[in-house]
Amino acid sequence: MKGVTYEGTVENGRIKLPETVHLPEHTKVLVVVPDTRQTERFTIVTGVDGPPIIRTTNGVITSQLVKELETQTP
Length: 74
Fold this sequence. Notes:
The protein has 1 helix and 4 strands; from the N terminus they run ββββα.
């Protein structure tokens, strides 16, 4: 089964897709809900010839996150 992926949000219990998405009536759709309980707050990636790169889920490095990073064992 071929398909296209759209990102939407749930508002008032209904799935809302971007206004540019128009689906014909009775179109079969699949809904995939990410498991937000298991998301990592950050990842550390080591570049080929550069320093480690810290990537956060929301793009912000806070003092609390720095404390968590300091407790990580290499």
